Amino acid sequence: MGKYETPMLDELEKGPWPSFVTELKKATKVSPMADDELGQLEKSFQTKRGYWKHGGIVGVLGYGGGVIGRYSSIPDEFPGVAHFHTVRINQTSGFFYTAEALRMICDIWDKYGSGLTNMHGSTGDLVLLGTTTENLEAIFAEYSSRGWDLGSSGSAMRTPSCCVGMGRCEWACIDTMDFTYHITQHFQDEMHRPAYPYKFKIKTAGCACDCVAAIARADLSIIGTWKDKIRIDQAEVKNYADKGMDIQGEIIDLCPTECMVYDGGEIKINDVECNRCMHCIAKMTKALRPGLDKGATILVGAKAPIVVGSLLSWVLIPFIKMDPPYEEITEKIEAIIEWWDDTAKPRERIGELIEVKGMRPLLEAADIPPVPQQVKEPRKDPFFFWAESDFDK
Amino acid sequence: MGKYETPMLDELEKGPWPSFVTELKKATKVSPMADDELGQLEKSFQTKRGYWKHGGIVGVLGYGGGVIGRYSSIPDEFPGVAHFHTVRINQTSGFFYTAEALRMICDIWDKYGSGLTNMHGSTGDLVLLGTTTENLEAIFAEYSSRGWDLGSSGSAMRTPSCCVGMGRCEWACIDTMDFTYHITQHFQDEMHRPAYPYKFKIKTAGCACDCVAAIARADLSIIGTWKDKIRIDQAEVKNYADKGMDIQGEIIDLCPTECMVYDGGEIKINDVECNRCMHCIAKMTKALRPGLDKGATILVGAKAPIVVGSLLSWVLIPFIKMDPPYEEITEKIEAIIEWWDDTAKPRERIGELIEVKGMRPLLEAADIPPVPQQVKEPRKDPFFFWAESDFDK
Amino acid sequence: MATLDVEGKSYEVDEEGYLMDWQEWTEGVAGAMAKEDGLDLSAEHWNVIKFLRSYFEKYQIAPMIKILTKELAKEYGKEKGNTKYLYELYPAGPAKQACRYAGLPKPTGCV
Amino acid sequence: MATLDVEGKSYEVDEEGYLMDWQEWTEGVAGAMAKEDGLDLSAEHWNVIKFLRSYFEKYQIAPMIKILTKELAKEYGKEKGNTKYLYELYPAGPAKQACRYAGLPKPTGCV
Amino acid sequence: MALPERQTDIGPPKYDAYLPPVIKENYGKWKYHEVLTPGTMVHVAEGGDKIYTVRAASPRILSTESIREICDLSEKYCDGYLRFTTRNNIEFLVSDKGKIDPLLAELKERKYTVGGIGPRISNVIHTQGWVHCHSACTDASGIVKAMMDELYEYFTTKELPNKVRLAVACCVNMCGAVHCSDIAVVAVHRKAPTIDDANVGKMCEIPTTVGSCPTSAIRPNPKDKTVVINEEKCMYCGNCFTVCPPIDIHRPEDDGVAIVVGGKISSLRTDPKFSKLAIPFLFNEPPRWPKVVDAIKNILETYAKHARKHERVGEWIERIGWESFFKLTGIEFTYQHIDDFTFMRDTLRTSAAFKF
Amino acid sequence: MALPERQTDIGPPKYDAYLPPVIKENYGKWKYHEVLTPGTMVHVAEGGDKIYTVRAASPRILSTESIREICDLSEKYCDGYLRFTTRNNIEFLVSDKGKIDPLLAELKERKYTVGGIGPRISNVIHTQGWVHCHSACTDASGIVKAMMDELYEYFTTKELPNKVRLAVACCVNMCGAVHCSDIAVVAVHRKAPTIDDANVGKMCEIPTTVGSCPTSAIRPNPKDKTVVINEEKCMYCGNCFTVCPPIDIHRPEDDGVAIVVGGKISSLRTDPKFSKLAIPFLFNEPPRWPKVVDAIKNILETYAKHARKHERVGEWIERIGWESFFKLTGIEFTYQHIDDFTFMRDTLRTSAAFKF
Ligand code: SRM
Ligand code: SRM
Ligand code: SRM
Ligand code: SRM
Ligand code: SF4
Ligand code: SF4
Ligand code: SF4
Ligand code: SF4
Ligand code: SF4
Ligand code: SF4
Ligand code: SF4
Ligand code: SF4
Hints:
The complex is a heterohexamer, with 2 copies of chain A (about 400 residues), 2 copies of chain C (about 110 residues) and 2 copies of chain E (about 350 residues). Chain A has helices spanning about 5-10, 20-30, 30-45, 100-110, 135-145, 175-185, 190, 215, 235-240, 245-250, 280-285, 325-345, 350-355, 360-365, 390, and strands at about 65-70, 85-90, 95-100, 115-120, 125-130, 160, 200-205, 220-225, 230, 260, 265-270, 290, 295-300, 315-320. With about 400 residues, chain A is an alpha+beta fold. Chain A has 3 domains: about 5-145, Alpha-Beta Plaits, CATH 3.30.70; about 160-225 and about 295-390, Sulfite Reductase Hemoprotein, domain 1; about 230-290, 2-Layer Sandwich (Alpha-Beta Plaits). In chain A, a hairpin with a 6-residue loop joins β4 and β5. In chain A, α2 packs antiparallel against α3 and α4 runs antiparallel to α5. Chain A starts with 6 loop residues before the first helix and ends with a helix. Chain C has helices spanning about 25-35, 45-60, 65-75, 85-90, 95-100, and strands at about 1-5, 10-15. The radius of gyration of chain C is 13 Å and the shape is globular. Chain E has 11 helices and 15 strands. In chain E, the strands form 4 sheets. A 5-stranded antiparallel β-sheet of chain E has the order 1-2-3-6-5. In chain E, a hairpin with a 2-residue loop joins β1 and β2 (about 40-45). The interface of C and E includes residues 21, 60, 105 and 108 of C. β3 (about 95-100) of chain A pairs antiparallel with β5 of chain F, so a sheet runs across the interface. The structure holds siroheme (4 copies) and iron/sulfur cluster (8 copies). The site of one iron/sulfur cluster has 11 residues of chain E, from loops. One siroheme sits at the interface of chains F and A.
C-alpha cells in the first residue's frame, strides 16, 4: 500500500482496460510526488471535486510558455503536490520515437519530476506531469542540450501537430510530418514568447480522413487533397468483387456526389463531380487511390465552445501546393496570422474574429479570392456590404 | 391617350403576359386618380425612384387599422394621387367569390375609389388601391352594411388566410377554410384595434404542400397532417405502373425516409418511419392518400428579413386535433399570443422574441411539452440552463 | 405645408395633422386638434394625452398600446384598461387621435 | 499566505510572488521583487513597469504584448518594439516578471 | 346621399355562400385530381362528382372593368362561381364539363393567359413597387411583366422538372415569399442613407430608430437631437428609413435588385428552404429590366436542363453543390455571397469535401 | 552537479531520425494497407516492402516505468522503433513479419490490450480531470477507465458499422474533440458561480471578467470593486471562473456530466459534424460512473444494432432522424435539448415533415 489509502482508485485497477491508477502507483516508486497525487486524487473521487488552484505562471528563462504552473489548493494535506507543474516537450512529427530517445526522456524526468507523463497531450505535446518550480531550469537544460525543446502554452503559436501521413499511410497527399517540422521551426519565437491575442493552433492531416482532427481542433487546419483524377486499378476492383464486397451498396451508393458507376465489372468515376470525400478510396484501398496532382485545402477557425459555441474550421483556400520549401503556404499562413494578430481583441480566436468581421477582410488581407468553395451555400438574407472598390468593376 | 404621356409604361402593354399597365389604363375610365397614378408611375420608371411618402395614419372610426394612408410626395405634379390610400377588405376563406359579390365590390369601389384593386394582397386581403381620406367612412359603411368588413393593418392580428383545402383538394387534412373563418371571427377586436407589440399573422394550409406559404409567411403556421397510415389503393398503383410511371425512380427513391418499398406490384410503406412529407401522395394522387386520424402541426415564428434575417416557422405542437368548435387550438393560440404580447418589445415579432428568450418560456406558457419533433437536431454547445423545477425531477 | 393655428401661433403639421415638431406642443394644440375633430376633451381624454406626453418625454418613444391600457387600469380602474375604452374616448383610435393630440411624432411603418 | 516585506510593510503575495491586491503596489514593491530575482531595475525596466501600471489603471486589464511592444517602439525607438527586447530586460518573460513587478493581477487561463 | 348603416367587427362573409353547389356537396370529400392541360384540372369526389378548374393568369392589379369581365365569364360558364389562388391567378370553377372548351375558347379570344398548373411556372408573387409603396426600390409589377413575357411558355405549355415559384419584392421588407422562392428578385440599396438632421429630433422616435438597425450602425447624437450612421457598418437595409421619415435611403443611381434562388416552402422530399443569393446586384433598367430577365431565364433554363424529375431548384442545387451551380450558370461569385450575418457560422464550408 | 548547456528555439528533433529504415525508404510511397486483425495491420509500399503495425491501448497517463517497458518491447521486436497515435495508442512498428506473433504473445502475457484498428472503438480522447486541472468538474481518466472496461470488446474484437470515436472532457473548455465525437462526455455545472467579492477587485481584470461571459450575465459593480452575476442569464460555463480566481463555479453536489453524440471529423460521405446533446445531465458517481457507462453503452449498442455498414453514429442518426434516436434509445427529451444559443435558428425544426 502507498502513502495514502485509495479505496476508490483501487477499484479502477480492476477490469481489463489499462489502468491509469496502476500508472500512478508505479510512479510512486520514482517520486513521492506521485503518492500525493494519488492521495489528492482519491480525495477528489471521495468528494467529487478537484483540488487544484488556478494555473500559475512558471517557466524557464527566455521563454514565456511551455510549462503549466499547478498548485494544490490543499498543500498542507498533500505537500508532495504543493507544486505540480507540467512540462510540455515538443513531440516529434507523427509521434515517432526510438526506445533510446524515450529512455533518455524518462531518465531525466525521473530525476526531476513525478515519473508521470501524458503520451500525449491533446494538442500534441509530450506532457511531463508534475514537477516543482526549482527544477524547471534544470529540466530545460537537460532536454534542450539533448536536442529537445519545449512545446508551447499561453497566447502563442501552439505546438503544431499532424497525422502520420507519408510515414505510414498510402493516402497522404502532402508530407504532413515534414511540413509540421518546417512550420514548427518557422514559428519558434512565436511559440516560445507568447505575443498573440490568444492561442493559435496548426494541425495538418494528409487527407480528408483527417486523422489528427485538424478541422475540429486547430485554428489553421491543413488537409491534403488532389486536383486530378482518382487512380483506379480495375483488376483490384474485380478482386474486391470476387471476395464478396457489395461494391454497389458499400461504395457506389454511399458516394455523396453520385459520381461513380459500377457495371458489375469496372468502376467509373466522373471526377469533375467527385468532391474527394475519400469514402471510396478508404473502403477500397487497393483499387482506388488519390490523384497525382496533390496539394492541400486550408481551413481556419476551429475551436472549443467557449465563448460562443464550438467552431469547425472554414475553407479559406480550396487548393494550394505544399511542396518544400513551402514558401507560398508559409506566406499565406503568415498573412492570415498577421491579420488576426493586428485585429483581434485579447482572448479572441481567429474563428471568433471572423464571426465578428466576416470573411472578406481576411480574404483581402491574405490576398485570397472569394470562391464558392468557401461556402456551403451563399448567404440567405438580402443584407450585404459593398466597398467602393466593388463599384469600379 | 391618357392625361399623361407614358412611353415607358406603354412598352409594358406589349408582350403576351397580362399587363398591369392595361389595367391602370382601364381604370382611368373610372377615375381620374388612375390617370395620375399612371403619370406618377411613368415618372418613377423614368427616374428610377418612387414618389410616395411614408405611410399615413388614416382609417375609419372605431378601428385602428384596415386602411393604408398613402400620399404622393409630388402632389402638385400629380394631384389625383395627392391622397391614394388603400383599403383592405377581408377576403373570403379560400378566395371564393360569386360574380354577384364581386360586382357589388366593384360598384362601390368605382363610386369612391380609383377603380384599381389587388386581387389579392400578399397577406390575403382584397386590396382596393387608391382613395381619399374623406371617402373612407362611406366606403366602410357601404361594405360593412353589405356584410364585408375591413381586413387588418398595424400592430394587430393580421387578416388570416388559408389554402383552398377541403373546398377543392383531396389532401386537406383539416378544414382550412372553416378554421380561418372561425379564427378571423374570434380575433375581430385584435384585428381592428391594434394593441399588439407588432403584427401577428396566421396562415393555415391543409397539408405539407403548404399552398398558402404558411411556414414562410405567418407568425403562426398551421399545417394539416395525419397520425396513422397512408391509405394505399394497390389497384391504382398498378394503373400508374401500367401507364409507364417509373415508380421506383420517381417515388420510392425520392422518399426522404426510405420507408417505401415497391416490388414491381405493390407499394408497402413502413408508416412509423414516414415523415408525412407528401411527396408520394402528391405524385400518385390516385393511389395514395393521407391517413384518417387527421389534425395539424402548429409552427411559429416566420417572418421577412428585417431585423435579423428571415425566419421560417418552427414546430411548436407536432400534432393537435382541429375539429370544430376548435376549442383546444384556439386556447393554445391565445396562450401563445398572450406570452408574446406580454413579453415582446415594440416591433418585435414572435419569432424574434423566441430567438431572444429561447423556446422554453413559450412552451411553458402555452403548456406544451418539449419533444424531439420541435428540433431538427438537439443543441450543439454544452451551455444550457436549468430551472429549479428541473432539479426536483 | 399645412399649419394649425392656436391662440395666434401657427404650428406646422403634416397632411394628416400631426405636429411636424413634437417639441412645439402645448395643451392648446391638443385642444385645437380636438376641436377640428369635433371632440370635447374631457378629463379622461386629458389623462391619456398626459400619459402619452410624459411617456414620450421620458423614453422618446410612444408607449405600446398595452402599456397605455395597463397604465389606465392602474391609475383609473380596471374597466378603463382596455382598447374598448380607448376607442370610446378616441373613436379614430389612439394612434390617429390620442398620439396626434399629444403631439407625438406620427407612428411609422407597420401598416 | 506568503508575504513580501518592503520597507517595513508586509504585502500578501501568492505562491508565485504576485501581489494579492494590485492596489497595494508601490515602486518599492517592484524593487523588492526584482531584488529577489537578482535583477537590477534600470530605467528601461521602469519604462515597462510604468506603462503596464498606467495601462492597467486606465483599462483594468493588462495590455496584450503587442500593445506593449508597440508602445515601446513608439516611445523609445523601433529596435525596442519586439519581444526579444522584452525578454532581454525580463528573462523570465513579461507575464512572469514585468507584470508581477508592476503589481498586476496574475494572468489567468490560456496556458 | 345617406350612407347605409355601418357595422363593425362582423368579419368577412362566411365562405360557404360562395361555394358552387358541387363543392358544397363534396366539401372535404375529394378523392383525387388530374391535371388535364397546363391550365385545366379536374377534382373527383369520393362519390364521383367532378369539379373542373380553368386557371388564368392575372396581373394582380385588376381594374374593376376586368373584374366585371371575369364575373361575366364566370356567370356564362360557371354559374357565377370563381376563386383566386394564393398566387393571384383566377380560377374558373366549372361544374359542367361541356363548358370547358367554350370557356377556353372565349378566354383565348379575349387574350387571357391560361396555364400555371402542374410542374411549371405559375404566377409571380409580388408586391407594390412604385405603384404604391414609399419603400420601393424597384417596380415589382414592371419586373413581373417583363419576365413573364419572356417566360410565357413556361406558364402556358412547357414542362419543368417541378413547380418553379417566382417572386419579386420591391424592398427588403419582402412583402412576398421571396425568402423561400425557387427564383426571386429583391430590390436592394447599396449606399448608406442620408439624414435630414434638423427633422430627426422633431419627427422621430430616436430609440426606435437606433434600435431599428440590424447592425447597430446607428447611434444617437443627443447634442444635435439627431442620430449618426456609421457608414462602415450600414448594409443599407432601410429599416431606419422605415421608422424615421427624415432618413432617406433612395439613391436611384445606386439602387437595383438582387437575385436569390433555391428557396422552397413545401415539405415534400426536403425541408422548406430559404432562398440564397445568386446575383448580388443588377441595376434597375425600366421598363424591361433586360439583364434581370436574362439572368432569371439563364438560371431557369440551366435548372430545366440539369435537374431531375421532381427536383425543385433548391433540391437540384443542393444535389450538385453550389460550386457547380455557379459553374453551370456562369454567375460570378463575389464577396457579397459569403454570409457575414446571422447564418454565417452555418453556411461557411466546414468540410474538406467540395468540388473544384 | 553542473547542468548541460541549454539551447533555445531549436524546436523538436527532426522526425527522420526516428523512422524505421523501411519507413524511411518507402516514405511517401505506400500503396495500400490491410487490416489483419483488430490490433494489427500491414502497409505495403509500391515496391512491395511492408511495415506491420501492432496497436496497443494506453491509459495515456504513463509512468516512466511503463514507457521503459514499451521501449524494451520495441527493441525486442521492432529494432527500437515505435510511435503513438493521435488517439494516444501505442504502435509497435514491426519490420519483420516473423516478430508479430511473438510480440502479440508477449503483449498478451503482459496484459496489454491490443486492438482499436478498423471499424470499432479506439482509445478515448480525454483530458486532465481531477488529476491535474483546476477547472475539472469530473475526472476524465476515471470515466474513461470505467467505460472502456465495459466496452472492452469493442476495442479488442467486436466490429461496429464504422469507427466510433469517444471522448471525455472534464469541463466545457473541451480540451479534447468532444465537440465532434461520435459519443462523448463533457462535464457541466448547473448552478451559477459564487463570487468572493472582496478579492475580485484585487485579483481580477474586471473588463476581462465581464467580457468572458457568453450570455452577458456579468456586469461590473464599480462601487464595491467587484462584479455581479445575473443568475437568470448564467448557463454555468465557468468562463468567468477561468479568468477570475475569486469566482468559484465548483459545486460537487450539483455538478456532473452531459453526453453528446453524432459528431464526426472526417469528410467521408458527409461533412464533419458537431456532436449534439443526448443526455443533459448525469451525476458524478466515482469511481465507476455506472449511469454514464450504461448510457454510453446503450447508445453504442442501439447504433450497432440499427446503423448500416459504414455509417457513423451521426450519419445513422441523421438518416433516421433525431425523433427516432430518442425513441430507439429511450432517452428523455428535455428543455435543455432545445438550442437557445448560437445555432438555435438553424436547429429548430422548420418543416412539417418529421416522425412522430
Ligand atoms: C493538457 C491539455 C489537456 C490534455 O489533457 O491533453 C489541456 C489542458 C488545459 N487547457 Fe486546453 N489543454 C489541451 C488541449 C486543448 C485542446 C485540444 C487541442 O489543442 O487539440 C483544446 C480545444 C481546441 C481549442 O484550442 O479550442 C483546448 C481548449 C482549451 C480552452 C478553450 C479555448 C477556447 O478558445 O475556447 C481553455 C481555456 C483557456 O484558454 O483559458 C483551455 C485551458 C486549459 C488549461 C490550461 C486550463 C486553464 O484554464 O488554465 C488546462 C491545463 C490543465 C492542466 O493543468 O494540466 N484549453 N485545450 C491539452 C494540451 C496538451 C498539449 O499541449 O498537448
Ligand atoms: C400590400 C402588401 C404587399 C402587397 O403588394 O401585397 C404589403 C405592403 C406593405 N408592407 Fe408588407 N405588405 C403585405 C404583406 C406582407 C408580407 C406577406 C404576408 O403577409 O404574407 C410580409 C412578409 C411576412 C412578414 O410579415 O414578415 C410583409 C412584410 C412587411 C414588413 C417587414 C415586417 C418584418 O417584421 O420584417 C414591413 C415593414 C414594417 O412593418 O414596418 C412591411 C410594410 C409594408 C408597408 C406598410 C410599407 C411600410 O413600411 O409602410 C407596405 C405598404 C405598401 C403600400 O403602400 O401599399 N411589410 N408584408 C401586403 C399586404 C396586403 C394584404 O393585406 O393582403
Ligand atoms: C390553387 C392553390 C391553392 C390555393 O388555395 O390557391 C394550389 C393548388 C394545388 N396545389 Fe399547391 N396550390 C397553390 C399554391 C402552392 C404554393 C404556395 C405558393 O406557391 O406560394 C405551394 C408551395 C410552393 C413551394 O414549395 O415553394 C404549393 C405547393 C404544392 C406542391 C408541392 C410541390 C413540390 O414538389 O414541392 C404540390 C404537389 C405537387 O405539385 O405535386 C402542390 C399541389 C397542388 C394541387 C395539385 C393540390 C390538389 O390536389 O388540388 C393543386 C393544384 C396544383 C397546381 O396548381 O399545380 N402544391 N402550392 C395554389 C395555386 C397557386 C397558383 O396560382 O399557382
Ligand atoms: C494512426 C492514426 C493516425 C496517426 O497519425 O496517429 C490513423 C490511422 C489510420 N486511419 Fe485514421 N487514424 C487515426 C486517427 C483518426 C482520426 C482522429 C481521431 O479519431 O481523433 C479520425 C477522424 C475521426 C472522425 O471522423 O471523427 C480518423 C478517421 C479515419 C477514417 C474515416 C472513417 C470514416 O468513415 O469516417 C479512415 C478511413 C476508414 O476507416 O475507412 C481512417 C483510416 C486510417 C488508416 C486506415 C489510414 C491508412 O491507410 O493507414 C489508418 C489505420 C486505421 C485504423 O486505425 O483503423 N481514419 N482517424 C490515428 C489512430 C488513432 C487511434 O489510435 O485509433
Ligand atoms: S489523415 Fe489521411 S493521410 Fe493522414 S493518416 Fe489519416 S488517412 Fe492517412
Ligand atoms: S471520393 Fe467520395 S465523392 Fe469522390 S468518387 Fe469517392 S466516394 Fe465519390
Ligand atoms: S396545402 Fe395541401 S390541402 Fe391545401 S391546397 Fe395545397 S395540397 Fe391541398
Ligand atoms: S409521405 Fe414522404 S416520407 Fe412518407 S412514404 Fe411518402 S414519400 Fe415517404
Ligand atoms: S416589399 Fe417593401 S417596397 Fe414592396 S410593398 Fe413591401 S414594404 Fe413596400
Ligand atoms: S439602412 Fe439599415 S443598416 Fe443602414 S443604418 Fe439604416 S437600419 Fe442600419
Ligand atoms: S477540459 Fe477543462 S478541466 Fe479538462 S483539462 Fe481542459 S480546461 Fe482542464
Ligand atoms: S459561468 Fe459562464 S455564463 Fe455564468 S456568469 Fe460565468 S461566464 Fe457567465
